[in-house]
Design goal:
- The protein is α/β, with parallel strands linked by helices.
- The chain is 47% helix and 11% strand.
- It contains 22 helices and 13 strands.
- The protein has helices at 8-19, 24-29, 34-37, 56-68, 71-79, 113-132, 156-164, 183-190, 210-227, 233-236, 244-250, 276-282, 284-303, 310-324, 342-354, 386-391, 411-430, 434-439, 447-450, 468-489, 500-514, 525-539; strands at residues 39-42, 45-48, 106-107, 110-111, 145-149, 174-178, 198-203, 237-241, 257-259, 329-334, 372-374, 398-403, 458-463.
- The protein has a six-stranded mixed β-sheet, sandwiched between helices. A five-stranded parallel β-sheet has the order 6-5-7-8-9, sandwiched between helices. It has a two-stranded antiparallel ribbon with strand order 3-4.
- Helix 7 links the parallel strand 5 and strand 6.
- Helix 4 packs across helix 14 (310-324) and helix 15 runs parallel beside helix 20.
- It is globular.
- The protein binds 6-O-phosphono-beta-D-fructofuranose (F6P).
């Protein structure tokens, strides 16, 4: 197949863009029904994409691009358990994690769904015991604190879900998260906890990750400093991993280990056993509702024609904005404070997946891949970086996310919150012309400063309520957007070789920092000097 940018459809999209540079003002003026026409509903979510700089022809060409890029074939290969993670020779089956009990999904000829449900059942039994106080600590006390130790995919999803679903959580069970190898993270999370009431979940797919292992060892020391008995580890540590051998080596009884599989990528694992802290907080029934939300979006993605398929359309619009309109970043702006960690979660999901510059066959891409994803909850962002989104020189497509039902008993404030969401997307799209500014009586010298060019694209996603179900569907939506974009760009969205070099170098440098001989450094002059300065300063 020719390179992506040499394909006729890609060239047609580029030509289409040059030929048709209409402002959103005229696109809306030209079609009174545009705001209803470019909308879609799936798995409890309503998408309004009418404020994107597209028309019917743009969509037709983008859908042709998806079609010719084999998105459907790759999607179906994923569901069939084929090893579409090319460089690691692994299947990619996070969709099996939320499959219904009676579904059948094979990897290498074995149905994986019974195994998924067996782990979920064990998690549910364990969570129930902890939640009612039946699982006791070493001294017979009830567990009051859960500390999840993990990083990347073994942290960001659980942290995000914990924030998002606090309203559904058992309030007398405190959940905390430790990820950073900076000891300050562990210290802050544990300094006011009682070891006899604390349960650590060591969450690591590989059980070899430097940061997680360092924190897990710190946790064991912290526990034993007080409880003074190695046997206490069994009551205060459980593990979530694919590596039983390393779990046992650490000293955690594998009877207290919750497993998952190599066909679950770290950043796609929050609905596997990695979600144990989530299940402990919200309980097995709410956790199941979250999985059902994921599953509802999976079903939509798997079975709906491309033109009505929400992840496909959002992925295509993202490609339009990135590869044709030149946007280099994508903002995600939840108008829901509980979703404050959602942008951080998406950063790993999208950028570790699609931050690649070679295609599946190893050849260099001739187009941009993932945008830089970022964001903060509205309305906080409005008083910070929105200035640049409205009047800066860069094009920043935005995804606004909101809920109809209030997230707190302060209903009036919810109306205010949502008024801000609707106002922002309106202001971005339509802006304010110089004539409008003058008509307000603005002094002439201030007119240019008060003009809003508009034509800044956004999606709005609305659901009735923030629940485990709607959260699950939202996460699955972005998982599948990531999948579709990776399929079109022709890259492996499921490996992450880009994180390796820094890890290796850090191991060497840690050894060098520990060594006393100052002359053994063989890095570049900058790195050598920095290490020497650090060693010298540390010695003082
Ligand atoms: O370094 C990146 C990474 O491999 C992520 O992909 C992963 O989510 C994270 O590290 C943590 O890995 P693990 O769960 O094996 O500790």
């Amino acid at each position: 197949m020719p390179k992506l940018t040499e394909r006729p459809v890609w060239r047609s999209l580029a030509a289409h863009w040059r030929a048709r540079d209409a402002h959103l003002r005229s696109l809306f003026a030209g079609d009174a029904r545009r705001g209803e026409k470019y909308t879609l509903d799936a798995a409890g979510w309503h998408l309004d994409y009418s404020k994107q700089r597209i028309d019917d022809e743009t969509l037709r060409l983008l859908l042709q691009l998806a079609d010719e890029s084999g998105v459907v074939a790759r999607r179906d290969a994923m569901w069939r358990g084929e090893k579409i993670n090319n460089t690691e020779k692994r299947a990619v089956l996070h969709v099996a994690l939320r499959a219904a009990r009676e579904q059948k999904i094979d990897v290498d000829g074995n149905d994986v769904v019974p195994g998924v449900h067996a782990v979920l059942d064990r998690m549910a039994a364990f969570a129930a015991r902890v939640r009612v106080g039946d699982w006791k600590g070493h001294t017979g006390k009830r567990i009051r604190n859960i500390v999840n130790i993990g990083i990347g995919g073994s942290d960001l999803g659980p942290v995000m879900a914990h924030e998002a679903l606090r309203a559904f959580a058992q309030r007398d069970l405190q959940c905390r998260f430790v990820s950073n190898v900076d000891g300050a993270d562990f210290h802050e999370a544990t300094h006011d906890l009682k070891p006899e009431e604390t349960l650590f979940i060591v969450a690591s797919k590989t059980f070899t990750t430097q940061e997680t292992m360092a924190n897990a060892h710190a946790a064991r020391r912290w526990l034993l400093d007080t409880l003074k008995d190695d046997a206490s580890v069994g009551k205060h540590f459980v593990a979530v991993s694919t590596n039983a051998e390393k779990v046992a080596e650490f000293g955690i009884d594998t009877a207290n280990m919750f497993g998952f599989w190599d066909w679950v990528g770290g950043r796609y694992s929050m609905d596997s056993a990695i979600g144990l802290s989530t299940m402990l907080a919200i309980g097995p029934d709410h956790f199941r509702a979250m999985l059902d939300g994921f599953h509802a979006m999976d079903e939509h993605f798997h079975t709906t024609p491309l033109a009505q398929n929400m992840p496909v359309l959002m992925a295509l619009i993202g490609i339009w904005n990135t590869n044709f309109l030149g946007a280099t970043t994508q903002a995600v702006l939840p108008y829901a404070n509980p979703l404050k960690r959602f942008p951080a979660y998406l950063q790993q999901l999208v950028m570790e997946s699609n931050g690649k510059s070679v295609t599946l066959d190893g050849s260099r891409v001739d187009h941009d891949t993932s945008a830089v994803w970022w964001g903060e909850p509205g309305t906080n962002g409005q008083h910070s970086f929105y200035q640049l989104i409205h009047q800066g020189t860069r094009l920043i497509p935005c995804d606004f996310i909101g809920f109809v039902a209030p997230l707190s008993p302060l209903h009036e404030q919810h109306d205010l919150l949502m008024a801000n969401l609707f106002a922002q997307s309106e202001a971005l799209a339509f802006g304010k012309t110089a004539e409008q500014v003058r008509a307000e009586g603005t002094p002439e010298e201030l007119v240019p400063h008060r003009v809003f060019a508009g034509n800044r694209p956004s999606n709005t996603l609305l659901a009735q309520e923030l629940t485990p179900h709607s959260l699950g569907a939202l996460i699955a939506l972005y998982e599948h957007i990531t999948f579709v974009q990776g399929a079109i760009w022709g890259i492996d969205s499921f490996d992450q070789w880009g994180v390796e070099l820094g890890k290796q170098l850090a191991q060497n440098i840690a050894r060098e920092i520990a060594a006393t001989d100052n002359n053994d450094l063989t890095h570049d002059s900058s790195t050598n000097a920095l290490i020497r300065r650090y060693r010298a300063g540390r010695g003082e």
